[in-house]
Amino acid sequence: MSPTRPRVLLADDHPLVLEGLAKLLSPDFEIVGAVADGLALLEAAALWRPDLAVVDISMPRIDGIEATRQLRDLVPETQVLFLSCHTEPSWVQAAFAAGACGYLVKTSAPEEVETAARKAVKGNFYISPAVAYAVLVQPGPERETAHRIEAPRPVPSGALTSRETEIIHLLGKGLSNKEIARRTGVSVATVRTHLAKVYKKVGSVSRIALALYAAQSGEAVM
Questions:
Q1: Which of 11, 16, 131, 162 is 20 to 30 A off residue 200, Cα-Cα?
Q2: What is the mean pLDDT of residues 91-99?
Q3: Contact present, 46 and 14 (Cβ < 8 Å)
Q4: Are 32 and 9 in contact (CB under 8 A)?
């Protein structure tokens, strides 16, 4: 008997994009539905409870960001991978703040989409190199620094405790502080304390930057 394929729900208001994604992912994933707006995404997710939702940002009725926020409460086991034309840092940060574990741009190569889907369905962090550059690059004087994500600095081997390493690993998988606390058997306040220490050690004040650090250092790899 062949192993069960991960179940994927697609959400985009462009039929050609939905058709292309379905053809691309269907060899390795079971496509349980394809919807054209955020409200339909929530309804289909509640019905099918997919392992992964590939979501656009700009959609009718409910946009992808708000739909993801609601989806994380409605079907918390469903991972979310964004596929969007938006590369602005503010959009990327909003996507991850809403609960996504991956972000791709629509110019991504098919191979990258497949790679991101395989990572995201396991809850591993993925960000397109094109978007990573956009959010990590140093801004010029004309750019808004409030939306820039500071690149974490490398830390010496052994600088992080085993608990801090474990928390980074879970954060890199897209878990919230509450979910991390439940996994590690500590309080949410303790998770926040550990994260504050990690932020100081790696020179980061952004959750997505820390998730980037996790992915780049291998902490998010299962």
A1: 131
A2: 84
A3: no
A4: yes
What is the distance between the alpha carbons of residues 219 and 117, in angstroms, rounded to a whole number? 18
- DSSP class of residue 36 equals S
Q: Specify the length of the chain in residues.
A: 222
Query: Alpha helices of 85-203 — where are they, by DSSP H?
Result: 89-98, 110-121, 129-136, 162-172, 177-184, 188-202
Q: In whole angstroms, what is the distance from residue 128 CA to residue 112 CA?
A: 8
Nearest CA among 51, 46, 109, 44 for reference residue 83 = 109
- In angstroms, rounded to a whole number, what is the distance separating the alpha carbons of residues 36 and 195? 38
Looking at 43-57, 91-105, 161-175, 183-197, which range is the least confident one?
161-175
For the ranges 90-104, 127-141, 163-177, 191-205, the lowest mean pLDDT is seen at 127-141
Say whether pLDDT at 206 is over 50. Answer: yes
Type of residue found at 21: L
The DSSP element (H or E) to which 35 belongs, if any, is strand 30-35
How far is the CA of 198 from the CAs of 38, 97, 152, 158, 165, in angstroms? 35, 19, 10, 12, 9
The rounded distance, in Å, linking the Cα atoms of 21 and 35 is 12
Structure-block tokens of residue 100: 């996504």
Q: Which of 7-11, 113-117, 204-208, 217-221 has the lowest mean pLDDT?
A: 217-221
